[in-house]
Write a structure and sequence with these properties.
The complex is a heterodimer of chains A (433) and B (136). Chain A has 433 residues and is an alpha+beta fold. In chain A, 47% of the residues lie in helices and 24% in strands. The longest helix of chain A has 47 residues. In chain B, 40% of the residues lie in helices and 17% in strands. Chain B has 5 helices and 5 strands. In chain B, strand 3, helix 3 and strand 4 form a beta-alpha-beta unit. In chain B, helix 1 crosses helix 5. The longest helix of chain B is centred in the last third of the chain and has 17 residues. Chain B is globular, with a radius of gyration of 14 Å. Classes of the chains: A alpha+beta (433), B alpha/beta (136). Chains A and B meet through helix 5 and helix 6 of A and helix 1 of B.
Chain lengths: 433, 136
């Protein structure tokens, strides 16, 4: 081919960058001549400039592609953000909006056209018109951007453009490298959910009260007959009245438990927490439950304890947990058995364990033991007289006190229910009690 | 009232304000049979207010949820009537959440008895609250 084109001499110069060869520069001559140094220098300079130019074009092309990819991803992300139900804002550590979605504009009455240039400063200055308690919202945002828990949620009332309740969920955002990018704030309209919750609470409270009124009469009448106020009864009548009286008591417990679980679920369970020593409370709980355990011929005994165990808790609620666990242990103990109670301390947590030597929790029942109306089998309710709500109430109370509840059960060996509570370390306050 | 040196006056006459006839019967019987009290029953808050000037009682047991006037309104009104203003009041109610109990105490009730009550120990509970209100 070269001869056909009367090429008698040529040179090949590679087009190189630092990392790779991009191509080859060919130089042809129709004469048969030797390559001079000047030729070579010229060709090398030419090849070098060509390589740089090609490299630039390649880089530019790569950048264009990456940019297009990023734009696509940003578009997809924005579409996802815009299609969610929440008003989303990502705020940088320098207190600037990084991303806002359309729902944010819609929720806070911002012109959608202006959303891309909308500033955090503007939002803050408009907050007094938007929120019932603007200070709370602003401080929640400013105080949490650079120093706050990873996640939190809160509730605010919006007064403009419309009146509604907004739930706020917030969490930190980090790049894959771990670099802190800012904090995400998601406002969601929870008006309807809150209204349904309120209606549910009111309904439960109303029904419970309506049930208590006739129950007061039934329980009271049966109690007076059973107590002999109206005179002596035949054996048969006495047995039947006792059954009716016992069951009216069970109905009362059930109503109280339903109210408690409803309060726990709606976050309305009131806790009057104080620095208290667990040991006297446990002793008192044992004392209160002795009459009950005597019915089953079961002894309640402290087997392991420590001199004092200070926790920050509501003593009435703790008594509720202890009574529940102690009465359960007594109920499920063999006659003439012993229920063992221990209090230990580890890593600034106290562990209260209550052990029975009964038949253990059936395997199939273990998973749902803390669920509402969970009981071992249908006959247990009748035999043992529980409401099936006790353990779920205990769980709600213990968790509200920042503790954990659990159990270890071995078939035909018995069950240990335990709960932990964090140690109360504020000695100064303790001294003032 | 909370004077430790003060002797505890006798508790004999109790007024029960309760709109439910069945509960009236049970509570009256329980208080009379177990506590040997004399019990006068009023079926509504307005009835007891109307007769406030002539009330003769050591203590008032007052229901909270009643159709014409709720227990708190009755207590507030009684406190403005000189003859009845100083009669101690115990609320007897199904509404006994901790904040509700605090509210009753803030209005000046000396105690709260939860419904349903135990009829056999109702009289003892009333006496205990009565004693504690003087013991402090």
């Amino acid at each position: 081919l070269l001869l056909e084109n009367e090429v008698h001499s040529y040179a090949e110069i590679p087009l190189c960058t630092e990392k790779k060869v991009l191509g080859v520069l060919y130089a042809f001559h129709k004469q048969n001549r030797k390559l001079l140094k000047a030729d070579l220098d010229y060709l090398l300079a030419l090849a070098n400039r060509a390589a740089i130019s090609i490299e630039k074009v390649n880089l530019y092309e790569d950048l264009r592609l990456t940019n297009r990819l990023l734009q696509n991803q940003k578009g997809e992300l924005q579409a996802v953000l815009d299609s969610t139900g929440g008003a989303i804002a990502l705020i940088s550590p320098e207190m600037q909006f990084i991303t806002l979605n359309q729902k944010f504009a819609e929720t806070f009455g911002i012109d959608p056209e202006e959303i891309n240039s909308y500033q955090l400063q503007t939002f803050v200055s408009q907050a007094k018109n938007i929120f019932k308690d603007p200070e709370a919202v602003i401080s929640r945002i400013y105080d949490t951007i650079n120093n706050a828990p990873q996640k939190f949620s809160d509730l605010f009332t919006q007064i403009w453009p419309i009146q509604r309740e907004l739930g706020l969920f917030s969490r930190t955002v980090r790049a894959a490298s771990g670099e802190y990018l800012g904090r995400l704030f998601v406002f969601r309209d929870v008006t309807h959910e809150r209204e349904v919750d309120r209606m549910k609470s009111e309904f439960v409270s109303m029904v419970s009260h309506e049930l208590r009124t006739p129950l007061t009469s039934i329980h009271g009448s049966l109690g007076l007959i059973n107590g002999g106020v109206t005179g002596d009864l035949s054996e048969q009548t006495k047995t039947l009245v006792e059954i009716a009286y016992k069951n009216s008591e069970r109905l009362i417990r059930l109503i109280n438990d339903i109210l408690d679980i409803e309060k726990a679920e709606s976050g309305k369970m009131v806790f009057d927490n104080k620095g208290i020593d667990l040991i006297p409370i446990i002793k008192q709980a044992i004392q209160f439950n002795t009459a009950y355990s005597d019915q089953y011929g079961v002894r309640l005994q402290i087997t392991d304890s420590i001199p004092e165990a200070w926790v920050f808790a509501d003593s009435d609620r703790l008594m509720q947990v202890l009574t529940n666990l102690l009465s359960n242990a007594a109920k499920f103990s063999p006659s003439e058995g012993t229920v063992e109670i221990s209090v230990t301390r580890r890593n600034h947590y106290f562990k209260i364990a209550i052990t029975d030597h009964g038949s253990g929790i059936p395997k199939e029942f273990r998973k749902r033991i803390f669920q509402r109306f969970a009981q071992g089998d249908a006959s247990t309710t009748r035999k043992k007289g529980g409401t099936g709500l006790g353990l779920s109430i205990c769980k709600a109370i213990v968790e509200k006190l920042n503790g954990k509840i659990g159990y270890i059960s071995k078939e035909n060996m018995g069950t240990t229910f335990f709960f932990t509570l964090p140690e109360w370390i504020d000695k100064k306050e303790k001294g003032n009690l | 009232m909370n004077n430790e040196n003060k002797s505890i006056p006798p508790l004999n006459k109790i007024i029960l304000v309760e709109d439910e006839p069945d509960i009236q019967t049970v509570a009256k019987m329980a208080l009379e049979a177990m506590g040997k009290f004399t019990v006068q029953v009023f079926a509504s808050g307005s009835q007891v207010i109307q007769q406030a000037d002539s009330l003769s009682a050591d203590l008032i047991l007052l229901d909270v949820m009643m159709p014409d006037m709720d227990g708190i309104s009755v207590l507030e009104k009684l406190r403005t009537i000189p003859h009845a203003a100083k009669i101690p009041v115990i609320f007897m109610t199904a509404k006994v959440s901790p904040p509700e109990i605090i509210t009753y105490k803030n209005y000046g009730a000396i105690g709260v008895i939860a419904k349903p009550f135990d009829p056999m120990s109702l009289a003892d509970t009333v006496r205990k609250i009565w004693r504690e209100s003087y013991d402090g």
